[in-house]
Amino acid sequence: MVKKGRFKGTVRFMLVADGDVRKAFVAGDFTGWRPLAMQRRSGMYGLTVSLPPGRHQYKFILGGQWVTDPDNIERAVSDMGTINSLVVVDSTI
To answer: Is the full-model pTM beyond 0.70?
Structure first.
């Protein structure tokens, strides 16, 4: 799940914590596809990041597997032909 963060220009990535998952990461074009560790709290993983306006592709990494966001139906095809989740940040966020 992805939603507007508490502060202007931020986006909150969230994922329900599965009992088998010990660590969760988010990676996207905004990180150069380098994974960022998400924090586990109250049965969910979460991470807030600052993003400039525009379209941003991302995926979650769970147990070494790259997965699209199960709670976000917005998708995009990467230059490599893979399917990624998509978040659009406008200048009012």
So the answer is: yes
